[in-house]
Amino acid sequence: MSLQKVLGKTMQLDDRKSSGEKTDRLRRSIDSATTIPNREVDDLCEAFVMRVITINFITCAVKACKASASSFPLHFQDVEVEQQEVHFEPAFIQNLLPRIDWTGLRTTAIELGFPTVPDIKPNNDTLDEPMLRDLHRLLLETQVVEGKLVCGNCGHEYSIKDGIANFLLPDHLGSSPSLET
Amino acid sequence: MNEMADSKGRSLAMGKAYEEKHVHEVYQQIAQHFSTTRYKAYIGCGNGKYLAVNPNIFIVASDRSEALARIAAKHQPHSTIVADVLNLPHPYSFFDFAMSIAVVHHLSTRTRRVQAISEILQTLKVPNDTDQGGRALIYVWALEQKTSRRGWDKGDQQDVMVPWVMRGSSVAESAGHETQTFHRYYHLYEENELERDIQSAGGFVLESGYEKDNWWAIAVRAPENDESISATKLL
Ligand SMILES: [Zn+2]
C-alpha cells in the first residue's frame, strides 16, 4: 500500500473524529443499539468481536512481561465463544500465515477446544483447501465474546466484554511517567 | 523472517511443564464453558462478514476509549481492542505498519509524548538486511492552523484545553441539559517538533509534512543504537 493511500485514509479518519457532532451521533446510536434487550438484533448488526487471530498479535501490556516467553500467548479463561460466518478468502489466510506464531496459535486453539491444528506450520506444499478452511474457521470465524485473557507471566487478567478486550492497566502495573526530564 | 526467529525463540522456552500449567490446566478450567458455545451464521448483515478490503492487510485497531474503540470496530472490522498508548499490549519488533492518529497530542508532558512514540516504534519490525522494517505514521494537531476556526498560530500557547460541545437529543438526554461542554487537553505541535520527539524516542523520520491543521511523519526505528537488531540477527 502506498503511503499516499495511507495518508488519504488518515485524512478521512481525522475528518470523522474532528466532527464532534457526527462522532457523538454515532456513539449514541451504538450505545442505544447495545442496550436493546433483544440480543439477537444486537448480534446481527453490532458485531464487536475478538477474533482468535488477534490473540496472536497481542501480549501482556506490562513492560516487564514482554521479555518473558510465558507472557505469550495470553490465555483464555471463562470464555463464551461464537462462530460467525465470514466470507472465505484463501489469499487472506495465505498472506496471514507467515505472520502467525504457530506455537502460540496451537496453545490458543487447544484452550478454545480446537484440537485440529497441525503440529507444524503448513507451507505452500502442505497447505490445501481443507486446511485453509480450518484455519479460516479458527482465526476469523471463531470469536470470543466474553471472558478473560490471562498473562502466564504476571497473572494479570484482562477482561473481554461484548467482544472488546480491555488492556488498560491499573496504575501500579502501568508505566506512566509524570515528571518532566 | 523475524517472526520465524521469534517463534523459534519462544518455542525453545516452552515445554512440557509449561504446557501442563498453561495449556492443560487452563483447558480444564474453561472446559465447562464450552457448553455455552454458540454457532451462528449471520445472514444479511454486511458488517463483519466481508472482512478483507485488501487481503494483504490485517488491522488491529486500539483506542483508550471504549466508545471510540467500538466505533473503530464498526469501520475497520478486523479486530479492535481498548489499550493505552503508553502500555501497548503488542509484542516488540512485530508490525509492518503502525498508525497513530490524533493520540500523541493528548499526552500532557514531553516525556509522556516521547514515551508514547517510543512505545509505538517498538512494536515495529526492526530494519535488517532482508527487511526494510516496520513504518509508523504519526499524526498530531498543529499549532500553525490560523485558517481553521480555532485560529491558533505560531507563537501561541501550545498547551490548550479545547471545548467540545455535546448536543443531547435523545429522550434520556433531553431530560437533563440540552448541551454539555467538555474540555479536552491538547498539546499543539509546532513545526519540526514531531520530528524532534520521534528522534528522542529512538526513531528515524523518513518523510514528514503538514496536512490540514496537522503535522504528520512517517518513521522507522533507528537501527544504530538498537540492541535488538543484533539479537534478531543472532536468531
Ligand atoms: Zn503480564
UniProtKB/TrEMBL annotation, chain A:
Gene3D superfamilies noted in UniProt: 2.20.25.10
Sequence segments annotated as region (Disordered): 1-26
Keyword Nucleus set for record: yes
Molecular function in Gene Ontology: protein heterodimerization activity; protein methyltransferase activity; rRNA (guanine) methyltransferase activity; tRNA (guanine(10)-N2)-methyltransferase activity
Localization: Cytoplasm; Nucleus
Biological processes per GO annotation: maturation of LSU-rRNA; maturation of SSU-rRNA; rRNA (guanine-N7)-methylation; tRNA methylation; tRNA wobble uridine modification
Family: Belongs to the TRM112 family.
PANTHER family attached to this UniProt entry: MULTIFUNCTIONAL METHYLTRANSFERASE SUBUNIT TRM112-LIKE PROTEIN, UPF0315 PROTEIN-RELATED
UniProt entry tagged with the keyword Nucleus: yes
Gene Ontology cellular-component annotations: cytoplasm; eRF1 methyltransferase complex; nucleus; tRNA (m2G10) methyltransferase complex
Protein name: Multifunctional methyltransferase subunit trm112
Predominant cellular place of this UniProt entry's protein: cytoplasm
Lineage: Eukaryota, Fungi, Dikarya, Ascomycota, Pezizomycotina
Comp. bias intervals (Basic and acidic residues): 12-26
UniProt keywords, alphabetically: Cytoplasm, Nucleus
UniProtKB/TrEMBL annotation, chain B:
GO cellular component: cytoplasm; nucleus
Annotated transmembrane regions: none
Keywords in alphabetical order: Methyltransferase, Transferase
Keyword Transferase: yes
GO terms, biological process: tRNA methylation; tRNA wobble uridine modification
Domain Methyltransferase type: 43-125
InterPro entries: AlkB_tRNA_MeTrf/Diox, Methyltransf_11, SAM-dependent_MTases_sf
Pfam families in UniProt: Methyltransf_11 (PF08241)
GO molecular function, one term: S-adenosylmethionine-dependent methyltransferase activity
Annotated protein name in UniProt: Methyltransferase type 11 domain-containing protein
Species of the source: Elaphomyces granulatus
